[in-house]
Amino acid sequence: MTAVNVSAVAKSYGKVDVLTDISTHFPEGSFTSLLGPSGSGKTTLLRIIAGFVTPDRGTVTIGSTDVTNVPVWARNIGMVFQSYALFPHMSVADNVAFGLARRGIKGEAARREVAQALEMVRLPGMGDRKPKQLSGGQQQRVALARAIVTRPSVLLLDEPLSALDRRLRQEMQVELVRIQRESGLTTIFVTHDQEEALTLSDKVAILDRGRIVQIGAPTEVYERPVNRFAAEFLGDTNLLEGRVNADGTVVAHGQRIASAISLPPVGQAVTLAVRPEKIEIRDASDPQTGTQHQVANRIRAVISASIYSGTAITYEAEAADGLRLKIFAQNRDARLRAPGEEVFLSWLPDHTVPLAA
């Protein structure tokens, strides 16, 4: 297992800054997702680590070796592309063995390595088939087998699941995690899919306009987004604009909102984020108004819309002063709250997250 370090890496194309002073660490044996919208720089960063792109400045270190100017073939990496990049005229076994042949491993030794790699991706006995005889998910497994058969130090994945349908994508997510855990490879995964990043990763790095705005464990970046971009990009969120009051609350839309997280100084404007699933919705006539009613934020509101999706219901509710909130509720009973119904909304101060400007 090998760690990867990126230090002060920058890349521009003409007058367009694609990456700006990126510095981060990918621990050995970790699975890190680079997450961001199109144009955020995530694929460029991956290609710099791979060696396909040379940074304008900064360094890339794999293990203890500075590989900034080392060619791709000498970096001991495995890479899986979005398009799979399999050779259609070659068998599965020959596709997997391609990297071994370039390293001078042939004959029985290569056959053993190929068999082990195909076993790891759960494609034993399929070495004689051609790529066109395989499903999309199977082709993706072949591409993975080809990437890991050379026993690389680092595995790089460039949106490898984006071409799969939802069912296959979910299956391959499980397989990717299993393969990464079994191989112990330091893995860097590019995706624009928020759920995928949260599901697969030990760490998630959120990129915006060539900078890493937040990096941490999935629970950390989701539960405690550092700024508005991170909060909005990673899942749904309610944003409340307000000002810090002398009593330690935030006055937003005429409501006093409590947060258990440190707030800016009194009088300063602040944006609060509240995830929709953190909000509890109760009948306006219920005296409890929430299981945590004595310590929760409570707002009286009126249901303005409801969307039924089987396992869950999405509500939109409107409170005083034009405050609109989205709520995700599990479908625990058959009753669907109708527009116009008065309710109480409550959530804990721990779930009120102040965002940096």
Task: Please describe the structure with a list of short key phrases separated by commas or semicolons.
33% strand; OB fold (Dihydrolipoamide Acetyltransferase, E2P); EC 7.6.2.11; ATP binding; 357 residues; alpha+beta; Rossmann fold; six-stranded mixed β-sheet; 2 domains; five-stranded antiparallel β-sheet
Please summarize what this structure is.
The protein is α+β, with helices and mostly antiparallel strands. The chain contains eight helices and 20 strands. The protein has two domains: 4-227, Rossmann fold (3-Layer(aba) Sandwich); 236-355, Nucleic acid-binding proteins (OB fold (Dihydrolipoamide Acetyltransferase, E2P)).
Set down the secondary structure blueprint.
Blueprint: E1 4-13, E2 16-26, E3 31-35, H1 42-50, E4 57-62, E5 65-66, E6 77-80, H2 92-102, H3 107-120, H4 136-148, E7 154-158, H5 166-183, E8 186-191, H6 194-200, E9 203-208, E10 211-216, H7 218-223, H8 228-233, E11 238-244, E12 250-252, E13 255-257, E14 269-274, E15 280-283, E16 297-308, E17 312-318, E18 324-330, E19 342-347, E20 353-355
Parallel strand pairs: 3-8, 3-9, 6-7, 7-8
Antiparallel strand pairs: 1-2, 1-4, 4-5, 9-10, 11-12, 11-14, 12-13, 14-20, 15-19, 16-17, 16-19, 17-18
Summarize model confidence as the mean pLDDT: 91
Q: How many individual domains? A: 2
Q: CATH homologous superfamily name of the largest domain?
A: P-loop containing nucleotide triphosphate hydrolases
Radius of gyration using CA atoms only = 25 Å
Described by the principal axes of the CA atoms, the overall outline is elongated
Helix content: 10-25%
What order do the SSEs take from the amino end to the carboxyl end, as H and E? EEEHEEEHHHEHEHEEHHEEEEEEEEEE
Q: Total number of helical segments?
A: 8
CATH architecture annotation of the largest domain: 3-Layer(aba) Sandwich
CATH class of the largest domain: Alpha Beta
N-end to C-end Cα span: 38 Å
Strand order of the largest sheet: 6-7-8-3-9-10
Which stretches of 5+ consecutive residues score pLDDT under 50?
A: none
Total E-strand runs: 20
Largest sheet: 6 strands, mixed
GO biological process, one term: quaternary ammonium group transport
Catalytic activity: ATP + H2O + polyamine-[polyamine-binding protein]Side 1 = ADP + phosphate + polyamineSide 2 + [polyamine-binding protein]Side 1
Subunit structure: The complex is composed of two ATP-binding proteins (PotA), two transmembrane proteins (PotB and PotC) and a solute-binding protein (PotD).
Function: Part of the ABC transporter complex PotABCD involved in spermidine/putrescine import. Responsible for energy coupling to the transport system.
